């Protein structure tokens, strides 16, 4: 771990520049918290007007200390904060927590001031959190360097959850939600403007905490995905799940207007793909961020999605089965032997196949739970369980229900969720640490998230293993701001063919005679397309002529293409002549370099309506053949690819191989390709391998840095 960040989590000493006697002021609350929450290190209030602050000896200036503190909190305004930061760097402080606002969040001048502060801090070997940060809080060490009032409203309790957030509010909103449910939180950190230490870099330090079982992140932007990838790798080695809430829908990452891929692969979709690739679950909102927290803290290791539902309500059984199906969880039939044992215990009108409906007989015999749960525990059909008690009260032994279900969970070692809308019924389950929800929908949503997230983590571990180089190669942001050059179609097809992507046979013709001869060599009908490095989309300019079956038609098409390009002020490379190709489906294959995440590959349905009716998926290198096929299986057109109404399945091997080749092309260190649009990539059936019929490639000039 970076020693500066280690100091942030467990400092031996803390100075507070701008220390206030009033614990309800920004300069006073961190001092109050350090003393209140058991910080064991040295505390140095800095105040030129007081010899003592909140009962702690103070000094007028940082320079009056005998030695540099590990961490300095800066809680003074404006230029005083800038001078304080310089003093910290000159004295050898490891980390400055700059709570002062009025910098990058105010506009370009504030951003420039931030950059200057970071440069001076780095020159001294010091790191900075903020500015505009609410502060840091580690309740495991008592290093609560924060002014948040939440810690007064919801009493801290050290626990297995960590929170790292760019926003101050979002560092404590999840904290409050978790603490209200009795869950202990160790870390609650806000990085503010992320001028130096970003939320992603700070996550690498928190992910290294050996006692954490769950890490929550709030991200407003991801300018340094390589640090987030590193945090995910650290977490996977420790089997630590990460859930991230990413807000904001910015245009960053979109390619130039000449690229379909850039329009379809916007930043937010790339974020989805990046998080999934690294085994990080993406939450929808602040409540969603914590909804499944209790499941992650149990130590369960789910092995599948088969769910057994047990309830005293037929309605709960039906609703749970519906919710499970919607969440792509299976409701397997219990074995004949298990059902025979259940029928010997339950009344004849009870359902035993799955869901298991105990019926209202539970009212007269509360022991039914204790009798059937051990039987179900032995059945091999289940990977997880839902126990629903929607109604109970007097005459029900709810304590026994909680005790029996807890023993059942311990015996199976498999995930168990409970639904109990009545507080008095829920209490015995909650008191034994079981995840309890009010309704079936939220219970199964949480259970499904937990199981699928573990699958994502396993897939990420398989993809990257312990190879840090592979992780770094997956994040190759574009660094050059100069526009790449648009290749004409002939050049584009040649570049793809050289990369191992099959392309339609074609000839570039610079005269009508050459075009007629090329058509004769291919055999009619043929396609004639105008070729120019100034035009990305040809159809709009009348540069695509299909189904030509005579020399006169080819000659007229040649002249029409040349005239159209001249009318639009575009250069004329010639025309491209190719045979009319036949196939079953037009697909799309694309790639571009996201300025933050590096190479992005797009697979999906093609044709001229790709932007009007997009049906695509994103892949980030490195990916496998299986990844490509799974992406295609999630398309809306997936049933058509598999063959419907007696049609043969579409042959996708060539397309999959082309996607892999495109991924390799975009990740080669020597590659100058910035963007690729292949639309259509024609696929057929049987032995038809498929081919690129049209391509638009953007390429950097030789010697231009990426």
List the keywords:
five-stranded parallel β-sheet; 37% helix; Rossmann fold; 706 residues; 25 helices; alpha/beta; Dna Ligase, domain 1
Quick structural overview:
With 706 residues, this protein is of the alpha/beta class.
Helix content: 25-40%
- The overall strand count is 30
Strand portion: 15-25%
If you compute it from the alpha carbons, what radius of gyration comes out, rounded to the nearest whole angstrom?
31 Å
Total of DSSP H or I helical runs spanning 4+ residues: 25
Folded structure, characterized:
With 706 residues, the chain is of the alpha/beta class. Among the domains are: 1-131, Rossmann fold; 307-434, Rossmann fold (3-Layer(aba) Sandwich); 505-579, Dna Ligase, domain 1 (2-Layer Sandwich), CATH 3.30.1490.20; 585-699, ATP-grasp fold, B domain (D-amino Acid Aminotransferase, Chain A, domain 1). The chain is built from 25 helices and 30 strands. The strands form 7 sheets. Strands 20, 25, 26, 27, 28, 29 and 30 form a 7-stranded antiparallel sheet that branches. It has a 5-stranded parallel sheet with strand order 2-1-5-6-7, with helices on both faces. α2 (29-36) links the parallel β1 and β2 (42-46). α7 (199-207) runs parallel beside α8 (225-237), α13 (314-326) runs parallel beside α18 (440-464) and α21 packs across α22 (551-567). The radius of gyration is 31 Å and the shape is flat. The model is unreliable at 252-261 (pLDDT under 50).
What's the SSE blueprint?
Elements: H1 3-9, E1 13-17, H2 29-36, E2 42-46, E3 52-53, E4 56-57, E5 71-74, H3 78-91, E6 95-98, H4 108-123, E7 127-129, E8 135-138, E9 143-146, H5 150-153, E10 161-165, H6 169-180, E11 185-190, H7 199-207, E12 214-219, H8 225-237, E13 242-246, H9 260-264, H10 267-277, E14 281-283, H11 286-290, H12 293-296, E15 307-311, H13 314-326, H14 336-345, E16 356-357, H15 368-377, E17 384-388, H16 398-412, E18 416-419, H17 423-430, E19 436-437, H18 440-464, H19 468-473, E20 485-486, H20 489-498, E21 507-509, H21 512-522, E22 526-531, E23 544-548, H22 551-567, E24 574-579, E25 585-594, E26 598-605, E27 616-619, H23 625-633, H24 638-641, H25 653-667, E28 673-683, E29 691-692, E30 695-699
Helix pairs in contact: 3-4, 7-8, 13-18, 14-15, 15-16, 16-17, 21-22
């Amino acid at each position: 771990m970076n020693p500066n960040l280690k100091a942030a989590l467990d400092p031996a000493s803390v100075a507070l520049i701008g220390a206030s006697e009033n614990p309800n002021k920004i300069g006073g609350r961190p001092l109050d918290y350090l003393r209140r929450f058991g910080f064991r290190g040295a505390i140095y209030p800095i105040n030129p007007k007081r010899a003592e602050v909140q009962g702690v000896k103070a000094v007028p200036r940082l320079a009056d200390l005998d030695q540099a503190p590990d961490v300095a909190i800066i809680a003074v305004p404006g230029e005083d904060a800038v001078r304080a930061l310089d003093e910290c760097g000159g004295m050898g402080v490891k980390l400055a927590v700059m709570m002062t606002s009025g910098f990058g969040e105010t506009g370009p001048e504030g951003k420039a001031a931030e950059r200057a502060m970071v440069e001076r801090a780095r020159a001294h070997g010091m790191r900075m959190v903020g500015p505009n940060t609410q502060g840091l809080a580690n309740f495991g060490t008592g290093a609560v360097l924060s002014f948040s009032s939440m810690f007064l409203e919801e009493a801290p309790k050290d626990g297995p959850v960590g929170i790292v957030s760019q926003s101050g509010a979002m560092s404590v909103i999840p904290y409050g939600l978790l603490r209200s449910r009795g869950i202990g939180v160790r870390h609650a950190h806000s990085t503010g403007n992320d001028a130096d230490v970003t939320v992603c870099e700070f996550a690498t330090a928190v992910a290294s905490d050996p006692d954490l079982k769950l890490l929550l992140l709030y991200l407003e932007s991801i300018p340094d995905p390589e640090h987030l990838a590193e945090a995910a790798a650290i977490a996977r080695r420790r089997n630590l799940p990460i859930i991230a809430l990413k807000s904001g829908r910015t245009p960053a990452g979109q390619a130039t207007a000449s690229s379909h891929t850039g329009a379809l692969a916007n930043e937010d979709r790339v974020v989805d793909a990046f998080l999934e690739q690294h085994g990080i679950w993406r939450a929808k909102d602040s409540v969603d961020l914590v909804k499944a927290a209790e499941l992650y803290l149990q130590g369960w290791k789910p092995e599948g999605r088969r769910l057994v539902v047990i309830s005293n309500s037929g309605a709960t059984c039906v609703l749970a089965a519906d919710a499970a199906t919607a969440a792509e969880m299976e409701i397997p039939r219990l074995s004949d032997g298990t059902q025979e044992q259940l029928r010997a215990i339950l009344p004849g009108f009870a359902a035993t196949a799955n869901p298991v409906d105990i019926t209202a007989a539970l009212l007269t015999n509360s022991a039914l739970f204790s009798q059937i749960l051990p039987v179900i525990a032995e059945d091999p059909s289940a990977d997880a369980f839902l126990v629903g008690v929607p109604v109970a009260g007097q005459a029900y032994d709810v304590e026994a229900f909680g005790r029996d279900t807890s023993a059942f969970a311990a015996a199976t070692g498999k995930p168990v969720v409970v639904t109990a809308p009545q507080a008095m019924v829920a209490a015995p389950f909650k008191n034994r640490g079981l995840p309890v929800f009010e309704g079936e929908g939220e219970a199964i949503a949480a259970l499904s998230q937990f199981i699928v997230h573990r699958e994502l983590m396993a897939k990420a571990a398989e993809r990257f293993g312990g190879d840090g180089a592979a992780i770094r190669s997956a994040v190759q942001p574009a660094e050059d701001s100069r526009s790449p050059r648009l290749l004409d179609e002939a050049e584009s097809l040649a570049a793809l063919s050289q990369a191992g992507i099959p392309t339609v046979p074609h000839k570039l013709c610079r005269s009508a005679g050459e075009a007629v001869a090329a058509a004769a060599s291919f055999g009619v009908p043929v396609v004639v397309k105008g070729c120019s490095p100034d035009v990305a989309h040809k159809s709009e300019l009348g540069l695509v002529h299909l189904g030509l079956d005579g020399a006169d038609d080819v000659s007229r098409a040649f002249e029409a293409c040349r005239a159209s390009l001249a009318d639009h002020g575009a250069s004329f490379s010639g025309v491209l002549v190719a045979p009319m190709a036949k196939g079953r489906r037009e697909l799309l294959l694309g790639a571009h370099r996201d300025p933050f995440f590096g190479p992005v590959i797009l697979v999906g349905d093609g044709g001229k309506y790709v932007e009007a009716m997009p049906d695509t998926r994103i892949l980030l290198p490195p990916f496998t053949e299986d990844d490509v096929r799974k992406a295609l299986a999630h398309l809306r057109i997936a049933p058509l690819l598999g063959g419907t109404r007696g049609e043969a399945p579409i042959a996708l091997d060539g397309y999959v191989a082309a996607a892999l080749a495109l991924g390799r092309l975009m990740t080669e260190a020597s590659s100058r390709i910035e963007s690729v649009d292949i639309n259509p990539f024609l696929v057929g059936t049987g032995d038809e391998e498929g081919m690129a019929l049209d391509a638009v490639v953007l390429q950097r000039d030789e010697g231009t840095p990426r």
